[in-house]
Amino acid sequence: MGGGDVSKEMGAYRRGDHKLRKFVTARSTKFLLLSCIAFALITLACRSSRPWFNTSIAVADQISRSRKGYTLLMNTWKRYDLLKKSVSHYASCSRLDSIHIVWSEPKPPSESLKEYLQKAIKKKARDGHEVELVFDVNKEDSLNNRFKEIRDLKTDAVFSIDDDIIFPCHTVDFAFNVWESAPETMVGFVPRVHWPEQSSLQSGKAEYYTYSGWWSVWWSGTYSMVLSKAAFFHKKYLRLYTNDMPASIREFTTKNRNCEDIAMSFLIANATNAPPIWVKGKIYEIGSTGISSIGGHTEKRTHCVNRFVAEFGRMPLVYTSMKAVDSRSLWFW
Fold first, then answer.
1. Torsion angle, alpha carbons of 23, 29, 32, 33, to 10
2. 294, containing H or E segment
3. Sign (positive/negative) of CA torsion 237, 241, 243, 244?
4. Which whole number is the average pLDDT over 258-277?
5. 10 Å Cβ neighbour count for 118?
6. What GO terms fall under cellular component here (predicted)?
7. pTM for the model
8. N or C terminus of the chain with fewer C-beta within 10 Å?
9. Which residues are within 8 A (CB) of 99 and not within 5 positions of it... i.e. 6 or more apart?
10. Catalytic positions, please?
């Protein structure tokens, strides 16, 4: 056989091999795609046909409802449309016992606003239970008002929330379940973290800390605070904040109109020596951007952290990497 014949045969072999590999690859891709589709359909069919799955959720929710509920403590300021939307939404949550609106405006709430909210709550009443609505009217405009002691609370659990933040009721109920498993700590949806400055560590001087936001939490997987704009805590911390926390801290937050949430995180961490718990949940912000979007916000918060360290005489915040996730809605966890 001549060299030319060998070259032709080798070329034909390569072309045949290439076609075979294309055929096998195409078949493999189609098989993989069909397998994925089939798996997805079987998964959905099994999930919809599993009475025990839906029953387990119903039983868990029923057990939860049999316990005490929680008080919604909502901070607001001249955003009546947002207040109406938030109250109307949360009034439908099954474990909500009462709504306390922290009112710090110069004029008391109007009768028309009260009437609107009462009607919205009555419309959402369930099983003969109507959520109680209370306006906690304050004479002084201070951020500390959101943590002022409320003596007649019927529930141990307080869900502190801003008027421009919405969570689905099932998400709030799950966070409440998490709090019930650790009622001494703070359980919330918005994690933040503090970091010691390396320069202070190396020089041996008193530690200086930096306040960091969400991206630092996301990058490091670590946090040491959950903000009170969306968090559960025990009602006793309202008393401690009002009566036992250094008055200089309350004066500082009133003067600077910032950092009352950091002060509450310090207070609870100082009392428990334990970290907060971050709960995974989708946040729907229905208002405009807040003070966190203003320039110099991080620097101001950093100043607060270091001021509070000096007031408490130590850094009480505790780092953690734990996140609570509702596994009932997940297949892989």
1. -130
2. none
3. positive
4. 98
5. 13
6. endomembrane system; membrane
7. 0.79
8. N
9. 71, 72, 74, 87, 90, 91, 121, 131, 132, 133, 134
10. 261
pLDDT in tens, 100-120: 999 999 999 999 999 999 999
pLDDT band of 330, cuts 50, 70, 90: confident
Q: Residue ranges per domain, the chain?
A: 65-329
SS3 296: coil
Pick the CATH number of 65-329 from 3.30.1330.60, 3.30.420.10, 3.40.50.150, 3.90.550.10: 3.90.550.10
Beta strands of the chain (E only): which ranges? Answer: 70-75, 96-103, 132-137, 157-162, 165-166, 187-188, 191-196, 209-212, 225-226, 230-234, 277-279, 284-285, 323-324
Residue-averaged pLDDT of the chain: 84
Position 233 pLDDT exceeds 50: yes
Q: Fill in the amino acid letter for 62.
A: Q
Signed CA dihedral, 271, 268, 185, 141: sign only: positive
Q: What is the pLDDT of residues 136-174, one digit of tens each?
A: 999 999 999 999 999 989 999 999 999 999 999 999 999
Compute the radius of gyration of the chain from its Cα atoms. Answer: 28
Integer angstrom CA distances of residue 163 from 178, 284, 286, 305: 23, 11, 9, 25
